[in-house]
Amino acid sequence: CNIGYTINGQPDGDRSFAASCAANGTFTGLKNCTRVTCGVPPPSGNAVASSDEQFYGDTETWMCKEGYSLDGTASGRADFTRQCLADGEFGPATPKECEDINHCLGNPCSANGVCNDLGAGKPAPGYNCTCLDGYEVKTLADGSETCEEDDCKGNPCGEGGVCTDLSKETGEANAHRCDCHEGYELAEPEPGNFTCVRKVCLMGLPASINNVLMSGHLPSVSVSTWHGGPHHTDSALGTPL
After folding, report:
1. Are 82 and 59 in contact (CB under 8 A)?
2. What pLDDT does 140 receive?
3. CATH code given to domain 151-199
4. Residue 15 half-sphere exposure toward CB, CA atoms < 13 A
5. In this prediction, what percent of the chain has a pLDDT beyond 70?
6. Which residue from 20, 22, 163, 212 could staple onto 226, CB 3.0 to 4.6 Å apart?
7. What percent helix, strand, coil does the chain show, rounded to 5?
8. How far is CA 166 from CA 99, 109, 151, 172, 194, in A?
9. 102-149 matches 151-199 in fold
10. pLDDT tens-digit readout, 128-180
């Protein structure tokens, strides 16, 4: 039999046979040579192939498991081939076998954070970010993570309110909400830039108070002091001031 063929198709099978020439001019005892089988392709180097039986000369393709590629990058090629040889074994991988993907190549978390590779076989993105102070994890449209500036960094709402970063909810940069404390109200000193400022008292005195002098200045948070003479009264209530 030719190379890669045996009588029964098994790698260790006979590769030759004897035939007799009969009196009638025909041969008896002829047999056929069959391609050697390599069997069902087994898992190979963190990759899997089809379940079909392969024979001498066949080329089978293996696909890398999730979390692996040929060059160890997330965008790298994820398949290789092996050929069934005459000895019933699959040859070496072409071009090479799969490697564990290093999801932290190029530091997707940027200089504002530290990338933590979750190890082989983990689903995309295969890493998470630990961000520096003042920065937060942002999930991008493709599901990857990075570190961006916390929209509440520096407390844009001021001392009169509490800032809530909305970028995780809206996906927009520079998105935050100010919840103002009592005595403060929302203001927009610049377009799109909100903060909490003290409420301003109305100019002038309340209608129920006459003949008094006010100390201090406007605006004020909540308290102003009025000073009246010994004979001044509240004109509405008639009570001494």
Report:
1. yes
2. 81
3. 2.10.25.10
4. 11
5. 80
6. 212
7. 0, 35, 65
8. 39, 20, 8, 8, 13
9. yes
10. 999 998 888 888 878 888 998 888 887 889 899 998 887 766 666 667 888 99
Instruction: Tell me the C-alpha distance between 48 and 86, whole Å.
Output: 22
Burial tier of 68 (Cβ tally within 10 Å: 0-12, 13-18, 19+): buried
Q: Rounded to whole angstroms, what are the CA distances from 111 to 92, 135, 144, 146? A: 41, 11, 16, 10
Q: Which two tokens stand for residue 125?
A: 């993105």
For the record, the structure tokens of 65 come out as: 């498991």
DSSP H helices, 34-176, are 167-170
CATH topology of domain 1-101: Complement Module; domain 1 (2.10.70)
What does the pLDDT look like over 25-69, one tens digit per residue?
Answer: 999 999 999 999 999 999 987 999 987 899 999 999 999 998 889
The angle formed by the CA atoms of residues 236, 238 and 241, to the nearest 5 degrees, is 100
Gap between the Cα atoms of 28 and 6, Å rounded: 19
